[in-house]
Amino acid sequence: MPVKVTTSGTPPKWDPEKAARIISALVPGMILDRTDRGIDMNGKPFAKYSRVYREALAGASEDMKVDLRLTGGLMNSIKARNVEVPHPNVVTVTIAPDAGTSPAVVLGDGHAHRTGHRGPSHNVLGYWLHHGKGKLPPRPFMGLTPAQRKALMTALAKAGLFG
Predict the structure, then answer these.
(1) Which residues lie across from 92 on neighbouring strands?
(2) Where do the domains of the chain lie?
(3) pLDDT per residue over 28-50, tens digit each?
(4) How far is the C-alpha of 25 from the C-alpha of 93, rounded, in Å?
(5) Which tens digit of pLDDT belongs to each residue from 109-138?
(6) How far apart are CA 140 and CA 128, in angstroms?
């Protein structure tokens, strides 16, 4: 037997470009705000820094709060990098750190000292921090908590995107 599908009513309002603008404007700030509070994308506190690293931070008079901001370069580079609208009902917004670098820093003598060299690129450093590397535990920061996803959906709805 054939199946016949019919629709009626007004189709939902959906403007993928408007959705992309809202996502691009809100999501980087949501990631930064949560990360600054030491919370990962699963809503849990970040893994503590190692004892050795905490001692080095303390010896350099640096904050020991786990916020992934020794130089600030990585976090300051998180932005919307790409927007794709492959279909009228689909939008993909890529939020990521850039490929730039920050000054390499060593901790000691009561200060963080620039070495004159550059650190790894922000996107590579972000990958290592997010997934872990060697003894570095994962600190998943590139994403939204369930509460943040709900807040984003609320913002999209308030913008009239879910007619």
Answers:
(1) 84
(2) 16-158
(3) 999 999 999 999 999 999 999 99
(4) 11
(5) 778 888 889 999 999 999 999 999 999 999
(6) 10
Q: How far apart are CA 37 and CA 44, in angstroms?
A: 10
- The answer to whether residues 105 and 4 touch, using CB atoms and an 8 Å cutoff, is no
Q: Which of 158, 42, 52 is nearest to 108 (CA)?
A: 52
3-state secondary structure the chain: CCCCCCCCCCCCCCCHHHHHHHHHHHHHHHHHHHHHCCECCCCCECCCCCHHHHHHHHHCCCCCCCCCCCCCHHHHCCEEEEEEEEECCEEEEEEECCCCCCEEEEEECCEEEEEEEECCCHHHHHHHHHHCECCECCCCCCCCCHHHHHHHHHHHHHCCCCC
Whole-model pTM: value is 0.86
